[in-house]
Amino acid sequence: MIDTALANTKPGSRKAARPRKRKLTFDYVTFMVVFLGLPLAIFLIFVIWPFLQAVFYSLTDWSGFTPEMQVIGIENYIRLFNDDIFMTALGNNVLLAIVVPLITIVLALTLATMVTVGGPSHGPIRGLRNSSFYRVVSFFPYVIPAIVTGILWGQIYNPAGLLNGLLGLIGLDMFESFPWLGNERTAMGATIFVIVWGFVGFYMVLFVAAIKGVPAETYEAARIDGAGRARTAFSITIPLIRDNIQTAYIYLGIMALDAFVYMQALNPGGGPNNSTLVMSQQLFRTAFGKGEFGQASAMGVVLAIVTLIFAALVFTVNRITGGKDEKGRA
Amino acid sequence: MTTEAITTRDASRPARKPALTRKSANTPGDRTVGVLSHTALVLWSLIVILPLLWTLMTSFKTTKEIFASPFTLPANWNFDNYVSAWTQEGIGNYFLNTVIVVGFALVIVMVLGAMCAYVLARYKFFGSRAIYYLMLAGLTFPVFLAIVPLFFVLRNIGLLNTLPGLILTYVAFALPFTVFFLYSFFKGLPDEIAEAAAIDGAGEWRTFFQVMLPMAKPGMASVAIFNFLGLWNQFLLPVALNTDKNNYVLSQGMASFASSAGYAVDFGALFAAVIITIVPVLVAYVIFQRQLQGSVSQGTMK
Question: Chain B residues with CB inside 8 Å of A30's CB?
């Protein structure tokens, strides 16, 4: 590993002589070895090498505790696709990857629009009063560790928790000691809400920054042309910050395809009838619970492939729906 | 002439003023939208703040009081729950471990990441693009794919279940983001300054540490904030690679506390532990929120 890093730096030093004159001095060689070799070695050993190994292990029946293993080809994958529990988990992940980004982005974008350009329709383009207060408060959940967010909401959803207490206060007594996370119909919805709660503030701040990057003249021109608020949002804001929305969608989707922390905090067992089980939980259980490392690695590969397909899909959809805008801006 | 000018100006003044006031009168539509928007924002703020306040209040109640009603105030306001969370449940120990791991990992990843980004951004050599794309790949692939082999890599070098092992892993997985972000930053620094340093006789090392690195301070600060949040919240890596209870970090300690022994959990202490975990980060956030929000916008503009 380290040899490759070194091999990379050596011919490099000669090439680099082109822009500025560089000799293979002691200073330069140690510089390259430490500056490039050291980080690269750590990165290759602890990130890239495990990734490659995982792909190989996924083709074996390795149990992890014995040195011997047999290459069994794609048998692990075939077993995965015939495994109802894993397919349920995969389905839940796909659902999360579609719903979580959608709700988060719509909510974040709405709030961001309000605090940036939601002010009165006269005078300079501005947001509502006290908008920085809302921005600061909305960001709170993002700095709370995800596991703590999960624990906190687990207590709120508790049959004797805050939510049922509040519902009781407004007269909805039928929810008394209703198990939000223990009911198959509500467990997923409740979980999605927690994830959304954790991320809206961050993406709101991100969109606020993006919207502030749009020149005020653009909004003024739209207003003079008689565009109302909805029209401005759909015809000005969204097309102009479309790249930010795409980035947000990809990040949120990748996070939702993992979702391990939230699920582990809210429903470690996978929820009633596996209704909130996700692939990462199943992988963890298969690897460190059952010791089927080959099978678990196959799950990891499936997870990675689904993630890549998801990212490619978002890019493609954005390209197809927004191709014209891209050209117009370039 | 002059008087005429003055009079016209004077005449125009009152004329403009009513126009201004008439214009700035909010239309009914404005008012409706304003009220609706404020309602929405206030509602969301409540959804954010209420759970936190409720947790704060509950953290002072005994377990019995917690199950009696979610709203009653605690009978005595004392810090018993905090004491038992900190000592009996080991939150104090987890806290210390987290500070050590995150502290070391953050410093190391910032230094290594800056060095790597600097070389990749400012030196042309065979394979530099390939390394850059490899870093990008490391950024997009799910950590979960690596977790099983990583377990054995650490075990083979004897660092499984140790804090140094965890620090190294944190560094490795935070590296791609750090390099990726700082790359564009170093790329944007002017060449002339590095050349001037070289002419003045500074070697490669000195040029970096005394000239280039100080210039990259704003970028470093942004990345450091994000890395801090990311590492402080890291959950999967410690859960899989750090299973010795004495070495637990806060996030995994919280998880094991919350799920330990099912009904025997001291819920008062659990709420206190939640508050102990949240407060330092929240205070740091309120102090640094300007810089943090600046970082977010910087990240998006890139």
Answer: 205
pTM: 0.83
Q: For residue A220, count other CB atoms closer than 10 A to its CB.
A: 12
Cα(B302)–Cα(B290) distance, integer angstroms: 19
Q: What is the pLDDT of residues A45-57, one digit of tens each?
A: 999 999 998 999 8
Q: Does B263 touch chain A (CB under 8 A)?
A: no
ipTM of the complex: 0.80
Assess contact for B132 and B120: CB atoms under 8 A.
yes
In whole angstroms, what separates CA B100 from the centre of its chain?
A: 17
Is B236 within 8 Å of B144 (Cβ atoms)? yes
**Alpha-carbon distances, residue A196 vs A102, A192, A201, A262, A274 (angstroms):** 10, 6, 9, 11, 21
Interface of B with A in 226-245 (CB under 8 A): 229, 232-233, 235-236, 239-240
Residue B283: count other Cβ atoms within 10 Å of its Cβ. Answer: 11
In whole angstroms, give the CA distance from residue A58 to residue A77.
Answer: 8
A2-37 burial, b for 16+ CB within 10 Å, e for fewer?
eeebbebbeebbeebeeeeebeeeeebbebbbebbb
Distance CA B70, CA B271 (A): 13
Beta-carbon count within 10 A of A287 CB: 23
Tokens (6 digits) for B159: 């660092």
Angle (CA) A233 A246 B170, round 5°: 135
- Of the candidates A103, A115, A243, which has an alpha carbon nearest to the alpha carbon of residue B293? A115
Joined tokens for residue A193? 């809400």
pLDDT tens-digit readout, A174-216 = 777 788 888 888 999 999 999 999 999 889 988 988 888 888 8
**CA of A278 to nearest chain B CA: how many angstroms apart?**
12
Give the residue from A126, A73, A102, A121 showing the smallest Cα distance to A298. Answer: A73
B144 with A260: Cβ contact below 8 A: yes
Interface contact flag, B134 A115, Cβ < 8 Å: no
Buried-exposed string A73-96: b where 16+ CB fall within 10 A, e elsewhere: eebbbeebeebeebebbbebbbeb
For residue B242, give the amino acid letter: N
Instruction: Determine the average pLDDT of the residues in A110-116.
Output: 88
Q: Torsion-angle region of residue B201: left (phi > 0), alpha (psi -120 to 50) or beta?
A: left
User: Which residues are CB-contacts of B243 (< 8 A; sequence separation ≥ 6)?
Assistant: B161
Q: Is A1 on the interface with B (CB under 8 A)?
A: no
Contact present, B183 and B121 (Cβ < 8 Å): yes
Q: Which of B122, B129, B228 is CA-nearest to residue B184? A: B122
